[in-house]
Amino acid sequence: MGKTRFAREFLCVPMSFESAYFNMDMLNRCNRTEYSYHETTGGRLFVGCDMASSLEEGSSYSAFTLIEEIGGKKSGELVYRDLWVKHSNSNKEKLKVLYRWQVLHGTLTLVNIEKNAYQSSFVDLVEDDDYRKIVSREFWKEGILEEGIYCKKLNVVGMATGGEKQSMNVGIPGLLGMFETQKLMFPAKTAYDVQLSQTIKDDFAMWIINPDTEKFESLGANDDISMSTFICVKGYRSRKRKGGFSLSAIDDY
Q: What DSSP character marks residue 60?
């Protein structure tokens, strides 16, 4: 059962699909049966990392979103390609997700990471060359990389979000136009694709404009997926008019 339906039926959250800022019918129109998760086509790849606000038990989740640019820079079209959401205290586990994506999908044009408070330590870890080699050696044992081949360095930017995520122009609300124009699309080729895309949609469908406070807020327990999408798209927009990177996904040292 999706988070939206669960909130309405079991938590008695007073909302309807009509009151959702991101209407479900609009989101469903962004489905694309020609696309599937984990199947990239050579377009530029962007990652958004929403880090958990606390390492304490029961805190929010960390969410990583991978999006591919379709049809070149001028098209402005993006499609979801991968998603990782977990309550994990292991920075190395998160680091391995990013390197695994780069090995499996190709060079990540930009990894945009939320950098608030303690979360800045993860940015430092991603930039640590020793950890890159440690992860590479673990990939040798797991058969992900050929022995002697090292993961290529990630192109990382740390971003302090502050209250920006609720900005109507550049925050999560600013993604509305991308869904309305179907510039941000959901894979729907297989049953797995449909299910994973619905998980993302349910996260977005929890956002409303509170009629009492007139503030943009989520009725869900977590907003990690929509937040990681916002961070990802922000990274994409920062590179929209720039050329891609010629780095390969692996390095010989």
A: P
User: What is the domain count for the chain?
Assistant: 1
Q: In the beta sheet, which residues pair with residue 69? A: 78
Tens-place pLDDT, residues 192-215:
999 999 999 999 999 998 888 888
Phi/psi at 209 (5° precision): -95, 110
Sign of the CA dihedral with 115 first, then 119, 120, and 125 last: negative
Provide the token pair at 69: 């640019």
Q: What is the pLDDT of residues 142-156, one digit of tens each?
A: 999 999 999 999 999
246 part of a folded domain: no
Query: What is the domain-level CATH number for residue 22?
Result: 3.30.420.240
Query: What is the C-alpha separation between 84 and 94, in angstroms, rounded?
Result: 9
The parent domain of residue 89 ranges over 3-8+15-240
Classify residue 117 as left (phi > 0), alpha (psi -120 to 50) or beta.
left
**Cα gap 252→148, rounded to integer Å:** 7
Give which of 120, 126, 121 is closest to 96, Cα–Cα. Answer: 126
Name the pLDDT band for 4 (thresholds 50, 70, 90): very low
Which tokens is 122 given? 């993860």
Find the helix or strand (DSSP H, E) in which 191 lies: helix 191-204
212 inside domain: yes
**Is the confidence at residue 129, as pLDDT, over 90?**
yes
Task: Tell me the whole-structure pTM to 2 decimals.
Answer: 0.85
Q: Is residue 251 part of a domain?
A: no
| pLDDT tens digit sequence for 57-79 | 555 789 999 999 998 888 899 99
For residue 250, tell me if it sits in a domain. Answer: no
